[in-house]
Amino acid sequence: MHNHPSGDPSPSQADIQMTKAIIDIAKPLGIAVHDHIIVGKNGHASLRGMKLI
């Protein structure tokens, strides 16, 4: 989870790529990444909810 100071909770390509890299690294260790939430001024975005992970 993190915030976007700009106020727009839309995930950037960097957010998506970094999340996928963390998932790939965590999986062999038995760690499940359930979601990546981005908080903005007027709401939030869930990468899982957006079907990006």
Automatic annotation (TrEMBL):
Q: Which InterPro entries match?
A: MPN, RadC_JAB, UPF0758, UPF0758_CS
Write the protein's name.
Answer: DNA repair protein RadC
Taken from the record, one Pfam family name reads: RadC
Give UniProt keywords alphabetically. Answer: Hydrolase, Metal-binding, Metalloprotease, Protease, Zinc
Q: Which domain of life is it from?
A: Bacteria
* Domain MPN: from-to ranges: 1-53
